[in-house]
Amino acid sequence: MAHSEEKANVISTLYGGSGGSYWDDGLYYGVKTITLRFGRCIDSIAVEYHRKGEIITANKHGGDAGGDPEKIDVGPEEFIKTVSGYIGAADWTPGKAIVIQSLKFESNIRSYGPYGEEKGEHFTFTVNEGEKISGFIGRGATFLDAIGFHVIHT
Asked: Where is the Jacalin-type lectin domain (predicted)?
């Protein structure tokens, strides 16, 4: 049976601060790669998605600091079911913006991370049984200020 991206879509709340500009990568069948830049916080995220047999590369969200990019390759039988991390003040910035301090991803097969510094307020987003994360939303400018998720039924 072919999979359809027309299945019901749920959009989560945003976790993090209110800085930066809102972005929405859209709804896809699944996540292929996640590329992060991080140091004291998550500086940026860029995601590649599966859609109708194609690989779609979304825009990078956030800044260019944080060291070399680190890429997570999500296997063909794998899907992201949980994202957790920490939210806190970037106390090295003038306004002490609330940003995503760290992220950890869990698939149906393995865990990736944590990336960044685990300090601040912890958050966890987990899909229900029979669902998967199929896209990312958020806010960002110099850093990844906030993150949220599109969820579809598998």
From this structure: 9-153
